[in-house]
Amino acid sequence: MHEKYLNLKQYLQKLDSVIVAFSGGVDSTFLLHAAKEVLGENVLAVTAKSCLFPSSEIKDAVSLCENMDVRYKVLELNPLEIDGFKDNPKNRCYLCKKNMLMSLIDIAKSEGISYVVEGSNMDDMGDYRPGSQAVEELGVRSPLKDVSFFKHEIRELSKEIGLPTWDKPSLACLASRIPYGDEITPEKLTMIEYCERYLKNLGFHQLRVRAHGNLARIEINSDEITKVFNEENRTRIYEEFKRNGFKFVSIDLVGYRTGSMN
């Protein structure tokens, strides 16, 4: 792992100056830390603010940049205005990521920055990720993948370095909770965001609320499933979800897993 980290810093050093597409998650925080170490003021973190991500994530990303003493910008986007996006096609992620990365490339040009980099790693190669096509088409670099970092290695080194995100649950955009072909609306995204925040406030960790029409399918880690079924939690989860627009609430007995809608 330490050799890979050295390779990562050498890789970044050759880029001279970078914009880091920064979500505040495990991978992009690790990448930003490494870039800051070798490039100093020649690093700019850009966080996309949109209806697809909880507002709390934007605040956390900004706070991380300030604590790391990194220059940053918050880029406001509206993916629902992208042609075809709200229809939720299977290449939804491609449409959104291309729009976002093109905006970052424009910022890089205006700031005189050489490259845009993003935080994909080796684990991202094992799932259906149409957004990676946009990364390749636009010439955006993926340093963690290029030096063969896996997620568990990023977490271990992040813990060793002292990054607060080392054990942060994986995050994906809220649109990924809606089955392909079902229209993406601000109302659905708000319902999902609120219900996921409610579950986190109850003490659940890695989770997703998948929206199948008026039915919510909750995915949580298998070791936490039994917590849902105690009388107090079961009742208040149902009542809270119903209050926020869902008519039916179900628990996925398989538990949380990435890409279950693919």
Gap between N and C termini: 31 Å
Percentage of β-strand residues: 5-15%
Report Rg. 19 Å
Strand order, largest beta sheet: 3-2-1-4
Stretches where pLDDT falls below 50 for ≥5 residues? none
Run of helices and strands: HEHEHEHEHHHHEEHHE
Q: How large is the count of helical segments? A: 10
Global geometry: globular
Helix percentage range: 40-55%
Question: Main beta sheet: strand number and arrangement?
Answer: 4 strands, parallel
Query: What structural class is derived from the secondary structure elements?
Result: alpha/beta
Overall pLDDT metric: 93
| Number of DSSP strand runs | 7
Write down the oligomeric state. single chain
Describe the structure.
By secondary structure, the chain is an alpha/beta fold. The protein has ten helices and seven strands. The protein has helices spanning 2-15, 26-39, 55-67, 92-111, 131-138, 143-146, 151-161, 186-201, 225-228, 231-243; strands at residues 18-21, 43-49, 71-76, 115-117, 207-212, 215-220, 248-251. It is globular. The mean pLDDT is 93.
Which key phrases capture this entry?
262 residues; alpha/beta; four-stranded parallel β-sheet; three-stranded mixed β-sheet; 10 helices; 45% helix
Helix and strand topology:
Layout (H helix, E strand, L loop, with lengths): L1 H14 L2 E4 L4 H14 L3 E7 L5 H13 L3 E6 L15 H20 L3 E3 L13 H8 L4 H4 L4 H11 L24 H16 L5 E6 L2 E6 L4 H4 L2 H13 L4 E4 L11
Parallel strand pairs: 1-2, 1-4, 2-3, 6-7
Antiparallel strand pairs: 5-6
Helix pairs in contact: 1-2, 4-5
